[in-house]
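From: lab user (bench 3)
To: helpdesk
Subject: output format question, protein + zinc ion

Hello, I'm new to running complex predictions and I'm not sure whether the block I got back is the full result or only part of it. Here's what I submitted:
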Amino acid sequence: MGERLTVLGWDERVAAEFAPYAARGLEPARVALEHQHIYRLYTEDGECLARVRGRIRHQAEAREAFPAVGDWVAIEPFETPSESTDREAAIAAVLPRRSRFSRKSAGDLTEEQVIAANIDVVFLVSGLDHDYNLRRIERYLVTAWDGGARPVILLNKADLADDIEIRLEEVRGVAAGAPVHALSTKSGLGLEVFDEYLRVGVTAAFLGSSGVGKSSLINALLGEARQRVFDVRAKDSRGRHTTTHRELLILPRGGLIIDTPGMREMQLWEGTLDAFQDIQEIGTACHFRDCRHEQEPRCAVRVAVDEGRLPAARLASYQKLHRELVHQAERQDQYSQIQQKRKMRTMMRAARTMYNTRDRGRQR
Ligand code: GDP
Ligand code: ZN
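Helpdesk reply: Thanks, we reran it on our side. This is the complete output you should expect:
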């Protein structure tokens, strides 16, 4: 496959997953933007617009089956009328995701909506100013692991801090092995860390609260190219000039960044508590196997807090996260039950129709 696909993150694994589609004459593409079920795709020889073909739309009972930014898809290319500058294609399939970030959809129930797919590295950004918060870093770590991406912690605004080494040590204490770096978009300090993580074909994303400097970092990586390359002025169908943008950005230096409004407001989905290995280890000594480390007798974790071996705040954030995850699991259950009921109803209806036809057959 071509060099351009490599730039887009194509590798042996994607190639292997794509092989059956290639055999059917389909072409690979990666989703750069989604807007009301119209997709902008990067392809081997440029870009095109695409819609999801009727059949997957029908099969896609759950929104999770729809393509998301970062997804690899198989398309049936075809040309649109000549006055339009954009080719339009049909998306026939979505390839398996190696990682995915999701959120609850707008409705009341817990339905998964994938907001970005195939992210390799997630930069968890905090500011070394008032924003600095170890508990929040722990939560973002859980989110990153949950999505299946490799977390890297960035402490931005190092120009505002004079105790960088202490902060780095503190954060490493909760990082559960994830690398931690201090940097400053403003002074340029430490920006070379990106050489380590952003290589050709690697897809990254930034997570962190508003104001920590995510946009500044992304702009620094894009350089002057952002306006020029990514906000292409194109003629729409009525010949007006419109500004289009991409949410999967190709960096001039190599590598890709996913920057979507959804990623900016990431919520926890169903989660693992891997970021709290220390508590889980101590917890194996609790008297009750399902100890929540609250009021239970002979709780090893509370003993650890009393003896100063475990910060009380860390236990509190573990418990808060745990409660949220349990709550989400319950909502998920409720949702599955409703789905189950729906399925039963359809089956009953189908069975009734079948019996009715059979009865009519007998009467004849
Ligand atoms: P975002 O909301 O995470 O995208 O944050 P922005 O990139 O918009 O940055 C928020 C504010 O922090 C802006 O006023 C930036 O100029 C400022 N900022 C970003 N990086 C740095 C830095 O390294 N040092 C300092 N002092 N300010 C920064
Ligand atoms: Zn316990």
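A quick orientation on your result: The CA atoms of residues 247 and 260 lie 6 Å apart. Let us know if anything else is unclear.
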